[in-house]
Design a protein that fits this description.
Layout lengths: L6 E7 L9 H12 L11 E4 L6 H14 L5 E7 L2 E4 L2 E4 L10 H7 L1 E2 H10 L4 E7 L7 H4 L10 H5 L1 H9 L6 E4 L17 H10 L11 E3 H22 L11 E2 L8 E4 L2 H4 L33 E6 L6 H5 L2 H7 L6 E6 L17 H16 L7 E7 L2 H11 L2 H4 L2 E7 L8 H7 L12 H13 L7 E9 L5 H5 L7 E7 L12 H11 L10 H18 L8 H13 L3 H10 L7 H17 L3 H21 L2 H19 L2 H16 L5 H14 L2 H14 L2 H19 L7 H10 L2
Parallel strand pairs: 1-2, 1-3, 3-7, 7-8, 12-13, 12-14, 14-15, 15-16, 16-17
Antiparallel strand pairs: 4-5, 5-6, 8-10, 9-11
Helix pairs in contact: 1-8, 2-4, 4-7, 8-9, 13-14, 20-21, 21-22, 22-23, 23-24, 23-25, 24-25, 25-26, 25-27, 25-29, 26-27, 27-28, 27-29, 28-30, 29-30
């Protein structure tokens, strides 16, 4: 049999001052890889870094060597055993040369960051890459005595929880496979009398084929190794913990990024086992790469500065590109989605119990993928303010469970949950028997998992959902009934789409129902209207959502500045009732002329939408009381704020032009005495409009527009446009001045 000529490896083992020595682990993996009876990697293709060679220069240089040597058909095996840590938010590996008590600058000059490794991985031409990370004592040097100013000491569990984050920071979202020795808040163990850590011990066993009982071909592949490690390590630790006296409460579960889109070869099975196979079934290693996946899209769109993310989650038997068809592309073609990044979330189409891979099975599928989603929300998607989840089929169950499991701070990022043909209330017994394998028995509406899910959902969200939920059922779905799709959700959150279980998420045009559903849910805003720049509008909505999630829980303790920021964010998200209730109930609102003006503005906008004299008069009352308070306090900024709004209401409500000019003159005189600012300019512009000086009005609107953000422009346009129409009655409602206002304030 031919050796794996195009297989490469980089293996790193390090000895530290704190006593941790992983050199033996790396050496053992290297010896196995170059063994012609097992892995058959050419010796010159295996880079082993230990001792002084495993410093920053050596590690980065070895990656450069791989970049030069490999090609698109190469497979790359990466192995790191040593400390992993995080400092100042930077996830990094701890190479040789870093010791206790180092100064900050010396430490950061010697580390190797996850971002640097990710950059090197990006430069490799191959996508057939697997990275094993065995951070055996990931407390790193932090627990060993850094200077206090550099890094406070943390407990072992607290610091070790960074390993999963380190793995995610290395992941380049391009289909590489990452397997780490344990999950968050767990430790990586080495059993007594063992030469290797538990993780590396079983990795070596898997590469030798010792985990296999059934041989369909003569090779050990990624999926078999991943599945074995996921199964054997938790079971071993559980057994050891039970055997202790007293029993220990410990766990070790490997982290796997689940995105394995090419089931390529890692090693041969042992020679004596290969002899049992028919010669005709022994393909050459260079061609035996396993089921070759089509090119998988790991990112639909990623743009600089975007703070919104649409995350597509497919079901257990699919893959995002196949499941959602052209939906992401159609959304990206719609300019209304500018400002939204779009990414698939899921796992390889090869990881399917029904295909006999046995990497996951039944409810375990949902549990493992849920954990991966929870971790991704914490690390991979941490840069986004607002995340909308679009989930199909059982992907919706993954999303629901993840929302229940994840910490509040990460759940707060989720603004929308769109469930498409999701069996939220389980599958019927008949459906299970007809279409699904036995491992899915718990998917029954009466099964333990679905019963738990609905019970926990009701308990955690009893006071209301902190995100927008829409549940859609298909008119012709042989798998999932409408009753299961709609579960116990509010009737207003449920809708039916024409089509079957699969077709409803595969639109033929941007006018199909699912496109309209997503667009209405994610981009519609009454407050922002059809403001010309969709990207700016969506970015603003993302910021508003982040502000509300941060400030609303602490609303009672906010000062005037914080309360004002929260009110504007609520208004921007069309949560008008919540904003109004907060204003009316908050203890500082009645003492603040600024907040009273916000209440007046709320009633003013309601009046303009649907003229009701009582609403308009309520606005006048708030502005009038606040103006009197501002006059008494000689607060000129508040004087012009309330006076200009009273000038506006005097015109549009009562057509009382004398009162309009009186208030406008007061606002003008107060604004002229204040420092230049956005609202000073806006007030001067509006005041000159009321007294008939349109040239000066244009000049100040231009200055204000140059400083304004989206909601501020909309607010200025609201008053200016309505007042101009009431004063000058242009034919057809448009002329040069209205065009000027639109160009300056609505684009």
């Amino acid at each position: 049999m031919s050796p794996l000529r195009n297989a490469y490896a980089l293996l790193i083992g390090i000895s530290y001052e704190d006593g941790l020595d992983t050199i033996g682990d790396a050496q053992d993996v290297a010896e196995l890889l170059i063994d012609p009876a097992l892995c058959g990697y050419p010796e010159e293709n295996v880079l082993l870094l230990t001792g002084e060679n495993a410093d920053r220069k050596g590690i980065l240089g070895a990656f450069d060597t791989l970049i030069r040597k490999t090609d698109p058909d190469s497979s790359v095996f990466l192995y790191y055993s040593g400390h992993g840590d995080v400092l100042d938010g930077t996830f990094h590996f701890v190479p040789h040369g870093i010791g206790e008590g180092m100064e900050y600058d010396d430490y950061t000059a010697a580390w190797v960051t996850a971002a640097e490794i990710r950059e090197k991985i990006d430069s490799l031409k191959t996508r057939r890459l697997i990275f094993f990370m065995d951070c055996c004592h990931a407390t790193g040097m932090a627990a060993g005595g850094f200077s206090p100013r550099l890094h406070k000491k943390e407990s072992q569990a607290e610091t070790f929880g960074k390993l999963e984050g380190l793995a995610q920071k290395v992941d380049n979202e391009r289909g590489i496979s990452v397997i780490a020795s344990c999950k968050e808040e767990q430790q990586s163990y080495q059993l007594e009398d063992d030469r290797n850590s538990l993780f590396t011990k079983h990795l070596l066993m898997a590469l030798r084929g010792q985990h296999m009982t059934d041989f369909k071909d003569p090779y050990v592949r990624i999926l078999e190794v991943a599945g074995y490690l996921l199964k054997v390590i938790p079971e071993t630790i559980e057994q050891v913990a039970r055997d202790c006296d007293p029993p220990l409460d410990i766990r070790q579960e490997p982290y796997v990024n689940l995105e394995m889109y090419d089931n390529f070869i890692l090693s041969y099975i042992p020679e004596e086992m290969r002899r049992k196979l028919e010669p005709a079934s022994l393909p050459e290693a260079e061609t035996a790469t396993g089921p070759k996946a089509k090119e998988m899209r790991q990112v639909y769109r990623e743009t600089k500065g975007a703070n919104n993310l649409i995350l597509f989650i497919h079901g257990l038997s699919g893959e995002s590109s196949e499941t959602f068809g052209a939906l992401p592309d159609m959304l990206m073609e719609d300019p209304e989605f500018d400002g939204w990044d779009m990414k698939p979330f899921g796992y390889s189409q090869f990881i399917q119990p029904e295909n006999g891979k046995h990497v996951w099975g039944g409810i375990t599928d949902i549990g493992r993928i849920t954990e991966y989603l929870r971790t991704s929300m914490k690390y991979k998607y941490e840069g986004y303010d607002r995340i909308a989840i679009v989930a199909h089929g059982m992907g919706g169950l993954i999303a629901q469970r993840a929302l229940l499991d994840m910490p509040q701070e990460h759940r707060d990022k989720v603004s929308h949950l769109l469930l498409l043909a999701c069996p939220s209330n389980g599958l019927s017994e008949a459906e299970l028997q007809a279409e699904w394998n036995k491992p899915y028995a718990e998917m029954s509406g009466k099964g333990a998992f679905i019963s738990w899910l609905r019970r926990e959902w009701e308990a955690q969200f009893a006071s209301g959902l902190p995100f927008t939920l829409l549940a859609a059922a298909a008119t012709d779905d042989p798998f999932v009934s409408a009753e299961s799709c709609f579960a116990d959700f509010d009737e207003g959150s449920c809708l039916t789409l024409e089509g079957n279980h699969f077709s409803i998420v595969k639109p033929r045009s941007g006018e199909d129902a699912v496109c309209k559903m997503v667009k209405q849910a994610l981009t519609h805003s009454d407050s922002l209207g059809a403001f010309g720049d969709a990207r700016e509008r969506n970015l603003a909505l993302g910021r508003y959502d982040a502000v509300v999630k941060e400030l609303l829980p602490m609303a009672d303790s906010l000062d005037i500045k914080g309360l004002r920021q929260l009110i504007f964010a609520l208004e921007g998200l069309d949560r008008h009732d919540a904003a109004m209730k907060l204003l009316e109930d908050h203890p500082v609102a009645s003492k603040s002329t600024d907040l009273m003006g916000i209440i007046g503005g709320r009633h003013k906008r309601e009046y303009l939408k649907k003229p009701n004299r009582k609403t308009g008069e309520t606005a006048q009352v708030y502005y009038s009381i606040a103006l009197d308070m501002a006059r008494e306090a000689a607060d000129l900024e508040q004087v012009y704020y309330h006076a200009i709004n009273l000038a506006f209401l005097s015109l549009v409500m009562e057509e009382n032009k004398p009162a309009m000019k009186e208030y406008a003159t007061e606002a003008l005189e107060a604004a002229e005495k204040c420092d230049d600012s956005l609202w000073t300019y806006a007030t001067l512009a509006e005041a000159h409009l009321y007294i008939g000086n349109l040239y000066a009005s244009r000049e100040f609107y231009e200055k204000a527009a140059a400083l304004a953000e989206i909601r501020q422009k909309i607010s200025m346009h609201l008053n200016a446009h309505a007042a101009y129409l009431a004063l000058y009655h242009p034919p057809g409602g448009t002329d040069d001045f209205t065009t000027f206002l639109k160009e300056k304030l609505l684009t």
